[in-house]
Amino acid sequence: MNNDIERVLFSQEDIQEACRRLGAQISRDYEGKKPVVVGVLKGAILFMVDLIKEMDIMTEVDFLDVSSYHGGVASTGSITLNREIETDISGRHVIIVEDIIDTGLTLQYMLNYLNAHHVASAKVCTLLDKPEGRKVTAKADYVGFNVPNEFVVGYGLDYQEFYRNLPYVGVLKPDVYSE
């Protein structure tokens, strides 16, 4: 797997420091509240686990599974809802935890989903933000790192379900996905 990586963008240590920084900020912002932290499957699992360990607040955890990549290296623009949130989020503060925001289409879909469930508030925490990829206006409230407009894998992010278990985030060599 490591041989398929062109270069490492963020080391395991960089990511852990980002989790500490974001966890502390979210803890300050949600002091006295009990938000529902919603991880977006499958890519955000590793980030979410490390992030919530850094939060010093009471939280509930749930998951939402939406997809727009469908195995490729670019968003198809078609959003598929594979799993809904099971927790009753009506009137609750919700924090969506994403692995990456690229086109913004998935984020826009999820925020509409939360609004339809009448949440008290909805904020977004993403490990990676790729502003150059935006097709719609979308903004995270908490960002670990900005990334260039390249295809990245590792630490939960995949290419055809592989590379998620890399402990860092790196740029996948183009010859891997152009074969």
Automatic annotation (TrEMBL):
One of its GO terms (biological process) is guanine salvage. It is found in: Cytoplasm. Its EC number is 2.4.2.8. One of its GO terms (cellular component) is cytosol. Pathway: Purine metabolism; GMP biosynthesis via salvage pathway; GMP from guanine: step 1/1; Purine metabolism; IMP biosynthesis via salvage pathway; IMP from hypoxanthine: step 1/1. One of its GO terms (molecular function) is hypoxanthine phosphoribosyltransferase activity. Coiled coil: none annotated. The keyword Cytoplasm applies. The keyword Glycosyltransferase applies. It catalyses: IMP + diphosphate = hypoxanthine + 5-phospho-alpha-D-ribose 1-diphosphate; GMP + diphosphate = guanine + 5-phospho-alpha-D-ribose 1-diphosphate. Purine salvage pathway enzyme that catalyzes the transfer of the ribosyl-5-phosphate group from 5-phospho-alpha-D-ribose 1-diphosphate (PRPP) to the N9 position of the 6-oxopurines hypoxanthine and guanine to form the corresponding ribonucleotides IMP (inosine 5'-monophosphate) and GMP (guanosine 5'-monophosphate), with the release of PPi. Belongs to the purine/pyrimidine phosphoribosyltransferase family. This is Hypoxanthine phosphoribosyltransferase.
